[in-house]
Design brief:
Order of helices and strands: HEHEEHEEHHH
Largest sheet: 5 strands, antiparallel
Shape: globular
CATH topology of the domain at 2-123: Endonuclease I-creI
Oligomer: single chain
Helix content: 40-55%
Number of helices: 6
Radius of gyration: 18 Å
């Protein structure tokens, strides 16, 4: 019984990802992808402790979309359409949920070279467009190594707080 519980606890972790180089799917209409990102996409910036960095903190921007496993083909086609990202298998067995898959872009260079040009050419149409503008500013600062100075790091924290406020407004509005 104990071994079964341990394996269930581990099943919520991300499994080995695969990227667009292994996907043999057709591209989607870019406007379809934009609608999908407006509805299901997530721009996040986490700041976590890191032992080997001089500052002791790491800035980690991420773009992701998570869906049920039976919709994996859509995420694969989104990866091919954008030209970047990885697909991760997720299992939520311990919660009694269906398995999920997650499309993620964590490389700031891939964001600059693939995600941003795509989202600039086909702009987001919903409230998430404001979050994207702030997210892009943060990633640009990280790529310019501004996060390594106190001034740049504090600017990034301010921008991240603005993203959080926009997220809270959306949740408050949705609860009415």
């Amino acid at each position: 019984m104990f071994m079964q519980e341990v394996s269930r606890a581990r099943s919520t972790k991300l499994r080995k990802p695969f990227g667009k180089e292994r996907i043999q799917r057709d591209k989607l209409n870019p406007w379809y992808v934009i609608g999908f990102v407006d509805g299901e996409g997530s721009f996040s910036v986490s700041i976590g402790k890191h032992r080997t960095l001089r500052r002791g903190f790491e800035v980690r921007p991420e773009f992701e979309i998570e869906l049920r496993k039976d919709d994996q083909e859509i995420l694969e086609r989104i990866a091919v359409t954008i030209g970047s990202g990885h697909i991760y298998d997720l299992s939520y067995d311990r919660y009694g949920w269906y398995p999920h898959v997650k499309f993620k872009i964590t490389s700031t260079k891939d964001m600059r070279d693939y995600l941003f040009p795509f989202l600039d050419k086909y702009p987001l149409q919903a409230k998430k467009a404001k979050v994207y503008v702030l997210f892009k500013q943060i990633v640009t600062k990280v790529l310019a190594k501004e996060h390594l100075s106190d001034k740049g790091f504090n600017k990034i924290k301010i921008l991240r707080d603005k993203i959080r406020k926009l997220g809270k407004k959306a949740k408050t509005f949705g609860n009415r």
